[in-house]
Amino acid sequence: MSEITAMDALQIMRALPHRYPFLLIDRVISCTPGQSITAVKNVTNNEYFFQGHFPGRPVMPGVLIIESMAQAGGVLSYLTTADVEPKPLYFLAGVDNTRFRRTVLPGDQLVITVDVARVKSGIWFYKCSATVDGKLAVAADIMCAPGAER
User: Fold this and answer.
1) Cα gap 80→9, rounded to integer Å
2) How confident is the model at residue 10, as a pLDDT?
3) Nearest to residue 74, comparing CAs of 128, 120, 110?
4) What is the CATH number of the domain that holds 16?
5) CA dist list (Å): 122 to 27, 34, 150
6) What's the alpha-carbon Rg for the chain, to the nearest Å?
7) Fewer beta carbons within 10 angstroms: which end of the chain, N or C?
């Protein structure tokens, strides 16, 4: 499969069922189906979650960073199985070895990298990282499993 250079929000929404306010990737920078994907989440001050997390000290919740990684993995799985019909819908099945290294704040651009570690019995195992300004914010191993068909 050939490399995909970029995807905008509309193309991402064709690959994922998520919509505002829960679509947590804004752009795909590059993707090599079956291998890796790099996506971007622009973190803005008007994100809904900053109202309560935390007033006066807005910090992007770690679970939403994990979700953005899973969504990038979902796009990777979708693009890798482009010729499969009907399309499976992938669900987050597990998160292991997670480390939070720095906070993600309004104005940050989160660069999410997902590499396929392996695929076994239809379950995708990913090595994920999220960086801000080239510095590691979060690293995790994520599993996604196919669920209901689209």
Assistant:
1) 18
2) 95
3) 128
4) 3.10.129.10
5) 26, 13, 16
6) 15
7) C
In terms of residue numbers, what domain contains 51?
9-149
Tokens of 109: 């651009």
Per-block mean pLDDT, blocks of 10 residues, the chain (150 long): 84 93 96 97 95 93 98 94 84 96 98 97 96 98 82
4 falls within a domain: no
Catalytic site residue from 18, 53, 87, 102: 53
- Tokens for 16? 């994922």
Dihedral, 11, 16, 21, 27 alpha carbons, nearest 10? -40
- Annotation marks residue 53 as catalytic: yes
